[in-house]
Amino acid sequence: MEIWVNPACSKCRAATAALDEAGVAYTVRRYLDDPPTREELAAVVARLGLEPWDVARTGEPEAAALDDLTRTPADRDRWLDAMAAHPRLIQRPIITADDGTTVVGRDQASLDRVLSS
Q1: Is the peptide bond before 93 cis (omega within 30 degrees of 0)?
Q2: Is 9 tagged catalytic?
Q3: What span, in angstroms and rounded, lies between the C-alpha atoms of 93 and 104?
Q4: In angstroms, what CA-CA distances link 95 with 5, 45, 78, 90, 104?
Q5: How far apart are the C-alpha atoms of 81 and 4, rounded to whole Å?
Q6: For 28-43, how does the pLDDT look when each residue is reduced to its tens digit (9 = 90+)?
Q7: pTM higher than the cut 0.85
Q8: What CATH number corresponds to the domain at position 29?
Q9: How many domains does the chain have?
Q10: Domain around 6
Q11: What pLDDT, in 10s, does the model give residues 79-108?
């Protein structure tokens, strides 16, 4: 299992605490220090069954990079490029279980889903 975290984020700390409590082994990726590639982002978004704009943090100062993008398939690649260039735009925490189940672990239901996989 892998979890992408920002250690300053309370949701990330809660998710890692839940993983610890469940006794599962996991790898932490501090995605601001070790940003995912565009290809990794595309794979995660696909496993989530979402679009890049669904997992973008549009309230961050770096969101200016998204200003001219539409939420359409025509701009999908540009969203991925912007998020790869500005990893602070990526929603967190993102957890991928060994079986490929992937969630944005911001709530208990999402955490339960990945823990049961």
Answers
A1: yes
A2: yes
A3: 6
A4: 9, 12, 24, 13, 6
A5: 18
A6: 999 999 999 999 999 9
A7: yes
A8: 3.40.30.10
A9: 1
A10: 2-115
A11: 999 999 999 999 999 999 999 999 999 999
Catalytic residue chosen out of the listed positions 7, 9, 70, 108: 9
Other CB atoms within 10 A of residue 21 CB? 10
Distance CA 74, CA 101 (A): 27
Task: Compute how many other C-beta atoms are within 10 angstroms of the C-beta atom of residue 8.
Answer: 8
